[in-house]
Amino acid sequence: MNHIIGAKSADATPAVKWLKVDEDSAGQRLDNFLMRHLKGVPKTHVYRIIRSGEVRINKGRASAETRVETGDEVRLPPVRISEKVAEKASNPAPGREFPLLLEDDALMAIDKPAGVAVHGGSGVSFGVIEQLRQARPQAKLLELVHRLDRDTSGILLVAKKRSALKHLQDQFRERETGKTYLALVQGDWPAKLKVIDQPLHKFLLPDGERRVKVTTPEDPDGMRSITLVKVSQRLPGATLLEVTIKTGRTHQIRVHLASQGHPIAGDDKYGDFEWNRQLQKSADRPALKRMFLHAWRLQFKHPVTAEPIALQADLPPELKAFVDHVHPKE
Q1: Which has more confidence, 210 or 309?
Q2: Active-site residue 111, yes or no?
C-alpha cells in the first residue's frame, strides 16, 4: 500500500497530505493514482486540482498523463467530500467475474459488457476493476492495461503483474497492438473512405463532462489520430464497419465516424439523437438500447513469452440479433 508520509494538520478539517508511491502503483497515470486515493471526489475535481498545480510530484507540477514512479512523493491538497459521498465510497464494490477470453499468471482478457464502466469515478462508484478486485481478494495485483468507454462492449485486458502491466502498456503506447472494433453507423459509408487522419482536441463542457472534437493540424492541443475503416456489411439505412485504430485517443472512433456524417447507432454523445430514438422504439425489429460499438479483435505480444496473441470477442447477443434481423442470412 502507498502510505501517507506527512499531513499538515491534526484536526478533522481537510489537510495537505503527501503520499509515497510504492512498487504496486509505479507506472500508473497520475489521474488514475489520485482517483484510487480520493474516493468519492468527483472526477472533474481531480482533474481541476491537477491542472491548477495543487497536485505535485516531488514538489514539481505534473499533468494527468504523468506516470508516477516508486518512491515519488505526491502532494494531495485539502479536499472535502460530503458525508453521503464518503459513505458511498467506503462501501465496497460488489464482487463480480466477467466472461474470460484468456487468463494466465500474467494477465487476463475479459469480454466487458456494455453499460459497465472500467473503473469508478465521474458519478460511477465502481467499475470492472473494482468488482474484479472484490471478487478476487487473493490477487496481489489487478490493473487495467487500457480503457473502453462505459457503453462499449468487448475485449479488455487486465494485468496481474506489475511487469506485465508495463510491458503491455508500452505496446499500446508504441502502437504495436492491433485493435479492431465493430461499429454500426448511420447511412451508406463511402467505399473509398478507408483512412481518417484528423487530430482530436479534448475539452470540458460547462458541467465538467469531457468531450472531444475534430480540430486542425495547427491546433497546439490537437493530437494526431488515425482510424482505418473497412465495410463489413451494408444494411438498410446503415453500414456495419470494421474499424481499426492506430492511435488510442478518447472517443476516437465515435468522433471520427460522426465527423464524416455517419455517427454510431445509439451514441448518446456524438450521435443522431432522433435516429437513436427510432432504433430504441422500433416495433418491427429488435430495439437497439445501447451504442453499437464493440471491441472485436485484439492482437498483442504476450508480456512474458513474446508469443503473438490474437483474441476475438463475438458480437454480444443484443447486437447480433439486431444485425441478423435487418440483414438476415441467405
Answers
A1: 309
A2: no
CA distance 269 to 143: 27
Counting every residue written for the chain, the total comes to 330
* Interval 51-61: pLDDT, tens: 999 999 998 99
- The closest alpha carbon to 148, from 175, 172, 123, belongs to 172
The x, y and z cell numbers of residue 51, run together, are: 491542472
CA-atom Rg of the chain in angstroms? 21
The grid coordinates of residue 152 equal 462499449
What residues contact residue 305 under an 8 Å CB cut-off, 6+ apart?
none
- CA 89 to chain CA mean position, Å: 21
User: What is the CATH code for 93-170?
Assistant: 3.30.2350.10
Q: In the chain, how many H helices and how many E strands?
A: 8, 17
User: Catalytic one among 149, 151, 267, 272?
Assistant: 149
Exposed, middle or buried by CB within 10 Å (0-12, 13-18, 19+), for 123? exposed
pLDDT > 70 in the chain, percent: 89
Cell matching residue 326: 435487418
SS3 133: helix
Domain ranges of the chain: 3-88, 93-170, 173-326
- The CATH number of 3-88 is 3.10.290.10
Task: Specify the DSSP element, H or E, that contains 112.
Answer: strand 107-112
SS3 letters across 164-184: HHHHHHHHHHCCCCEEEEEEE
**Which of 18-27, 156-165, 170-179 has the weakest average pLDDT?**
18-27
